[in-house]
Amino acid sequence: MLSLTIRRAAASDAERLTSLVQGSGAYRGVYAAMVSGYRVTADYVARHRVFVAVDAADRLLGFYSLVLEPPELDLAFVADEAQGTGVGRLLVEHMLQQAGEAGLTEVRVVSHPPAERFYRRLGAERVGTVAPSPPKVAWERPELRFTLA
Description:
alpha+beta; seven-stranded mixed sheet; 27% helix; globular
């Protein structure tokens, strides 16, 4: 397990977050259109609960964005080189803690299809599918829900 810190994102992190999204190996090939041109802006960081995982050298290992109304995990990315090290699990656990502190009882996740198993391993249940929304998203996506105790 890497040594990491999870902290609230700052506006100055927006460019690094955008680079992580656009460089994600999970969005190559058929999925590339989804992140093509996508930007995480300073305004987005200011409006939502965005948290970053960084190592001791302040390298970005991953991040997530929790939208409170309606409750949804909007973005969740782990750097390719940090996948499989527990960063994603720690970020999701942190997100669920934040959701609980905000008084939420559930959090919706519209999952990238290859990430569905990851979310289900962490306790999300599949509640349906979300239809394609061309031209960016030409495939169905699993709709999942985390229920908070």
